[in-house]
Amino acid sequence: MTTTLIPVISAIVALVLAIVLTPPVAALARRIGAVDEPSGRRRHAMPTPLLGGLAILGAFLVPVLWFLPFTGAMRALVIGAVLMAIVGAADDIIELPPLGKLAAQIAVSIIPVAAGITIDHVTLPLIGVFDLGWVQYPVSIIWFVALVNMINFTDGVDGLTAGLAMIAAVTFLILAASLDRAEASIIAASLAGACAGFLVFIFHPARIFLGDTGSLVVGFLLAGIAVGGVMKSAAAIALVAPLLILALPILDTSFVIAKRLKYRQPVYGADRNHFHHRFANIGWGPRKTALVVYAWCALMGAVAVAIRIIPYHADDAAATLAGRLALGAIALLAVAATVWLIYRLEILKWRRTPVVTLVRERRPEPPVETPAPPR
Fold first, then answer.
1. Mapped to the 3 state alphabet, what secondary structure does 312-371 carry?
2. Long-range CB contacts (< 8 A, 24+ apart) of 336-339?
């Protein structure tokens, strides 16, 4: 069986299994009381079962364990995903304290890092490769824990996180396949298929939520796929691709944490400053929000794929020029979309910058017409 066909089969199997497994998982969540009740910060109107991540995990595991040997780094990543699901399930059921939850995430992240899934070097475009030495271990643990929480922070709109993870996994699949990373390709394809099948139930109106069970697992697997499929290569795309593909959770978390630190609020505290809250503030519904985010994430992923595939350093001068023009056009479109997103959500207060304020202060006021006295 060709290496191209195996990821396709893995994605299809995971998709079907996610559709089959989600209803019984929802029934189990209701039976044990893992249900998200409507509240002031919640946008859903009816009690909705959690633990949806169990369906994604189960659908993911079947093709992965079937097609890949359960040894070494592969075994560590699977064991870590199962343990991360247990941490998330515990939080969905009894709500773990933030520090305890963080400690558990760090402990689980050590497992794949100890098995060799590490960011052992950094490839900087136009500069070269830098080996990280022993620093690779703490850096890799931070990468796993950070991405787990970034993905968790995005889980606030029906279908948003599952769709984002599906698009990211498909993009990593393409890049891993182009770099001949067979194991990472199968893992990415299985995750993409599982998320796609789960979207049938979570796209607005959601009948079940990912819960922390799902968001932690998805973030953990994306972190592992990014390292094993792209970042361990010496290609120039190794550092840039994950930042582009995962731009939304990275930007969302960065802006939220910066604001919390600015106002001396707990980093783990809850608020309404995430992107999905800002979309709600401007009157967008869950479906429109999810679709816009999907489009933006797909565009950022397209830039990553274009950097890898488009020949902008070809031997032929005409091909090089054409490649650079095409890549520049895609990058320009992505930058424009990002600026529009930041402006539309009022993440940066453009109208309150000092330059704009100064111009407004110096602008002469229009003359006030005094009405003529009555005759």
1. CCCCCHHHHHHHHHHHHHHHHHHHHHHHHHHHHCCCCCHHHCHHHHHHHHHCCCCCCCCC
2. 337/296, 337/299, 338/247, 338/296
Which helix (H) or strand (E) segment holds residue 48: the answer is strand 48-49
* Segment (H or E) for 130: strand 128-131
Token pair, residue 123, equals: 């490839």
Using alpha carbons, list the distances in angstroms from residue 221 to 66, 132, 192.
17, 23, 11
Kind plus residue range of the DSSP H or E element containing 89:
helix 72-94
Q: At what angle do helices 72-94 and 211-226 cross, to 10 degrees?
A: 160
What percent helix, strand, coil does the chain show, rounded to 5?
A: 70, 5, 25
Q: Going residue by residue through the chain, which has 375 residues, state the pLDDT in tens, using 9 for 90 and above.
A: 455 799 999 999 999 999 999 999 999 999 998 898 876 555 656 888 999 999 999 999 999 999 998 888 889 999 999 999 999 999 999 989 989 999 999 999 999 999 999 998 887 666 667 888 899 999 999 999 999 999 998 888 888 999 999 999 999 999 999 888 989 999 999 999 999 999 999 998 889 999 999 999 999 999 999 998 888 776 667 778 888 888 888 888 888 887 777 777 776 666 666 777 787 777 788 888 889 889 999 999 999 998 888 776 666 677 778 878 888 888 899 899 888 887 877 665 555 444 444 444 444 554 544 454 544
At 49, which helix (H) or strand (E)? Answer: strand 48-49
Pull the structure tokens for residue 246. 């995962």
Rounded-to-integer distance, Cα 121 and Cα 239, Å: 10
pTM given for the model: 0.86
Residue 192 Cα distances to 113, 162, 185, angstroms: 23, 9, 10
- Structure tokens of 304? 């990553």
